[in-house]
Specification:
This protein is α/β, with parallel strands linked by helices and about 270 residues long. About 50% of the residues lie in helices and about 10% in strands. The chain has helices spanning about 1-10, 25-40, 50-55, 65-70, 80-95, 110-115, 150-160, 180-195, 200-210, 215-225, 225-240, 250-255; strands at about 15-20, 60, 75, 100-105, 125-130, 140-145, 165-170.
């Protein structure tokens, strides 16, 4: 999601450092940003001049120090691994200016725990975006145990400046608001397949037409990634000790088979 977040920030007029660990990832990210901006032009939402200015504001780099040296706001959007995130936050904390706010785009991990890897937990909070960031309006701003009010206020303000609608999650709980509601619904949809009640296509059709979801639950799991869905359910089950978050066996099978959805080209659907 990092490239989408970078695009949103650049379109809002912010200078952005887009940092990744390999040149190929940066090239891929910039290609996706360019493709997305061209789609906006086709739909008449922006001009070619707007696109050019947005691209000028994005500075790809492999150098973490270069990326955060002058940053006011840092948004982490790396894989959902506590160890990897903490390692990254420790490095960022040492390199970033003392005034900089650090945020995580995690969808389920403890903000308080992640903040403990830094020397500035009062300037650390969750900033949970939704996929794709260019189109989805909501941002969940999550308070950690030591997060200052000023930090929350600043992230809420910058979210609005990016054209988003933020909500403040007052307690650091797994899944926050949306994922806690959503993954139980997605998991139930998977059980309907597992129990041979209906096909993925019929389930998606039913929910899209009956509940007016823009995307059915099975298609949504494919789009966001089966691995992420499994990780989120496992985290919620572990943290709450509640059987209602027990992942459907079908989900585990699919992940073990490497059928992770859109990002690998195949999940419940073929993604060309």
């Amino acid at each position: 999601m990092g490239h989408g977040i970078a695009q949103v920030a650049a379109q809002a007029g912010f200078d952005v450092s887009l940092r990744d660990i390999a040149e190929s990832f940066l090239e891929s990210g910039m290609k996706m940003i360019t493709w997305s901006l061209k789609k906006f032009i086709e739909k008449g939402r922006i001009s070619e001049n707007d696109m050019a200015k947005s691209l000028e504001r994005i500075h790809p780099t492999l150098n973490l120090k270069e990326a955060v040296a002058d940053a006011d706001l840092i948004i982490e959007a790396i894989p959902e691994s506590v160890e990897l995130k903490k390692k990254t936050f420790k490095e960022v904390d040492e390199l970033a200016p003392k005034h900089a706010i650090i945020t995580s785009n995690t969808s389920s991990l403890s903000i308080t725990d992640l903040a403990s890897a830094t020397g500035r937990p009062e300037k650390f909070c969750g900033m949970h975006w939704f996929n794709p960031p260019q189109l989805m309006e909501l941002i969940e701003v999550i308070r950690g145990a030591k997060t200052f009010d000023e930090t929350i206020d600043s992230v809420v303000k910058v979210s609005k400046n990016m054209g988003k609608e933020p909500i403040v999650v007052k307690k650091d709980v797994p899944g926050f608001v949306v994922d806690r509601v959503l993954v139980t619904a997605l998991n139930e949809a998977l059980y309907l397949i597992w129990e041979n009640v209906a096909t993925p296509e019929e389930i998606d059709k039913a929910v899209e037409l009956g509940l007016k979801w823009p995307m059915g639950p099975i298609k949504l799991i494919d789009y966001t990634g089966l691995g992420l869905a499994l990780h989120t359910l496992e985290t919620l089950q572990r943290e709450f000790g509640d059987s209602k978050y027990r992942p459907c066996p079908l989900l585990r099978q699919m992940v073990r088979a490497g059928l992770l959805g859109r990002k690998v080209g195949k999940g419940f659907y073929e993604w060309k």
